[in-house]
Amino acid sequence: MTTKTLRTGGTARGGGLSVRYEPRALLGVLGLLVLSLGAAVVLIGSGDFPLAPSDVVSTLLGNGTPVQEFAVMDLRLPRVLVGVFVGAALGIGGAVFQSISRNPLGSPDVIGFGQGSTVGALVVIILFQGSALAAAGGAIVGGLVTAVAIYLLAWKRGVHGYRLVLVGIGAAAMLTAVVHYLLTKGQLVDATRAVVWMTGSLDGRDWDQFWPLFGVSCVLLPLILGHGRALRMLEMGDDAAYALGVKVERTRIVLMGAAVLLVAVATAAAGPIVFVSLSAPQLARRLTRSPGPNLAASALMGTAVLLVADWVATHAFGERQLPVGVVTGVLGGCYLLWLLVSERRAGRV
């Protein structure tokens, strides 16, 4: 194998395969990976039975005491793994929608898909008193139905980015009203349970939530990453993508379907953890300073943001622990205001 390195990028060739890379983007991805792994180890070691990072690593490698193995493998590891895959799903889902809409506001939790999942779960909880598994199924169905409806409403000889965002914002407002209506119709116990679910939290997550999330992620994450080049072409516009050989509508439907399903499954596993899918892709772009969707960086940024926010939620307020959705909501709301001001100054909104 021979490698050619440039100041701003490089190309690795070998066996007839050529892969272009940018050093800053590669370093950014590696830095996010290290940050995510470090945050995961710290979270696993946190709690009423604290463990040093070295003890956590030793236990994960099978060298811990029985008490350490129970605390790590049975109680804390599944919770952290759910956070890892939920963050990755939200980050990469947001990157897909922002690239397809060519708009930084084109995020699932801004254009209605998150609200659709919430409505689906609340219908199961409040109207049918369904179990946690049934509520998860309702969240997935609600997200998919909402995505189809928004896509059809935004269709007019193709899906224009701003039209998709505007239709989605309108749908999000309507679905939010439906959420409030459902809460008023429920019994006190069901309404309380629904509000707890809506907050978005990793508390109590175990292997039952992890394995379905892991299975879906193993299928959809590689599918989306495999369409990274086509997605980058779509960012240049439909005509340019057609000229470069991209089957625009089929690619758009495949990517949107995969992203919606990822976000819906993540919502089913941990509740509607807001603003991660909005902020993670934009933060990833600012870190890598690389054009294109930055799918791998967005996924790792989503994981890092969610794990760090979870640590803040459980440690920054003394004995009073908060759901992680509260922290991401506050931080993401501030980021959204900054983004709206920036877009307005640039004349784009």
Record the SSE blueprint.
Blueprint: E1 2-5, E2 10-14, E3 17-21, H1 23-44, H2 53-60, H3 66-101, H4 113-128, H5 132-154, H6 161-185, H7 188-199, H8 207-226, H9 228-234, H10 238-243, H11 248-270, H12 276-288, H13 295-315, H14 324-345
Antiparallel strand pairs: 1-2, 2-3
Helix pairs in contact: 1-3, 1-13, 2-3, 3-8, 3-11, 3-12, 3-13, 4-5, 4-6, 4-7, 4-11, 5-6, 5-11, 8-11, 12-13, 13-14
Would you report the number of β strands?
3
In the residues, how many domains can be counted?
1
How much β-strand is present in the residues? under 5%
Number of helices, where a helix is a run of at least 4 consecutive DSSP H or I residues: 14
The CATH architecture designation is Orthogonal Bundle
Order of SSEs, N→C?
A: EEEHHHHHHHHHHHHHH
- Average pLDDT confidence is 83
